[in-house]
């Protein structure tokens, strides 16, 4: 089939045609609107989400500081887990904050450490233990992933709304055809034999 014929068939709702119904034109506009919102809205949603996530990760890297801490109690060896031995355990650590105050808290450390072992832990701006902030590479990957997720979520909503609108138009066309057949059908009801 020549490519021009295919393109004309795909755009038939936009061409003047005595068989074209108002619902066909409405459906063409719905399809166009869905694709425009998908392309433009998906790009905007993805970029805004990725930028917001990147700002959060940058703020975490700025606020969280590593501090040296001492393990208070012996940390038992890791438990056997599916796929191997767990190398992290929860333990109590003691550290001195920047203001000179001593703090105790629980965090994840390597299993098998002895009391008095030195470890590096992360604290937030209020002196509470927290997880290490993501590196710039990890943050870029996560920001991109979240942006793609936002774009995909918007795409699902937009295509779902478009499909629902087109389904409603199809139901209306079927009902209209039924009403028209009720008017014309009895005239065609004679027997041929």
Write up this protein.
The chain has 3 helices and 7 strands; from the N terminus they run H-H-E-E-E-E-E-E-E-H. By secondary structure, it is of the alpha+beta class. It has 2 domains: 82 residues; 68 residues, no CATH class. The protein is elongated and about 100 Å long.
Summarize, please.
This protein has 193 residues and is an alpha+beta fold.
Supply database-style keywords.
193 residues, alpha+beta, 5-stranded antiparallel sheet, 3 helices, single chain
* Tertiary shape: elongated
Mean pLDDT: 83
Largest sheet: 5 strands, antiparallel
- In N-to-C order, the SSE pattern is HHEEEEEEEH
Task: Report strand %.
Answer: 15-25%
Output the strand order for the largest sheet. Answer: 5-4-1-6-7
Radius of gyration: 32 Å
- Measured between the Cα atoms of the first and last residue, the distance is 42 Å
SSE class: alpha+beta
**Parts with pLDDT < 50 across at least 5 consecutive residues:** none
Strand count: 7
- Provide the domain count: 2
The number of helices is 3
The amount of helix comes to: 40-55%
Transmembrane segments: 29-53, 145-165
Keywords: Membrane, Transmembrane, Transmembrane helix
């Amino acid at each position: 089939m020549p490519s021009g014929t295919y393109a004309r068939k795909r755009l038939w709702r936009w061409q003047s045609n005595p068989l074209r119904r108002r619902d066909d034109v409405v459906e063409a506009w719905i399809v166009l609107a869905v694709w425009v919102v998908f392309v433009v809205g998906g790009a905007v949603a993805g970029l805004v989400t990725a930028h917001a996530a990147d700002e959060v990760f940058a703020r975490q890297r700025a606020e969280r500081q590593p501090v040296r801490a001492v393990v208070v109690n012996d940390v038992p060896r890791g438990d056997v887990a599916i796929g191997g031995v767990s190398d992290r355990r929860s333990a109590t650590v003691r550290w001195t904050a920047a203001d000179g105050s001593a703090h105790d808290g629980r965090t994840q450390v390597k299993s098998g450490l002895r009391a008095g072992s030195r470890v590096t832990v992360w604290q937030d701006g209020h002196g509470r233990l927290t997880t290490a902030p993501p590196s710039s590479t990890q943050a870029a990957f996560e920001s991109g992933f979240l942006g793609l997720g936002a774009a995909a979520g918007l795409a699902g909503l937009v295509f779902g709304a478009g499909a629902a609108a087109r389904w409603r138009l199809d139901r209306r066309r079927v009902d209209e055809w039924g009403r028209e057949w009720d008017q014309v059908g009895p005239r065609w009801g004679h027997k041929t034999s």
